[in-house]
Amino acid sequence: MVVLDDLQWADAASVALLIDVARQLRGTRILILSTSRTAIGAEESLPNLTADTGTEQISLGGLTRDAVLELLAASGLSMPRDHLDWVVERTGGNPFLVRELAQMLAETGSSTTSVPERVVDVTTYRVRQLSDPAQGSCGRQR
Length: 142
Hints:
2 domains, 7 helices, 2 strands
């Protein structure tokens, strides 16, 4: 098994190499799993990979309201229905954000518009990993 994470950062040559390797490995017992946070619509060659036989594309979205409820129960957190709806709406079902907001609600007892400190820390860390031009564009997006 070969795992390639964050394919959205791959350049055209890397995607072309991935397509070639995937074709050559067809029929073998080797699995290539690649992930991408966003659709790579600007990349011309990626559709060739997903259109090829032996490949499968799975799009993942946020957790449903019921799945959020299950996640919170598994985490030992429970909350009133109106708070649950607020968490689902604010997080889009992102499991990391669901847990962090639910923890904040459990600790403070109120749904505020503030972002939990851990979310800010993780986001800051991830933005620092980007190039200077990419960091600049992060500050301009809202």
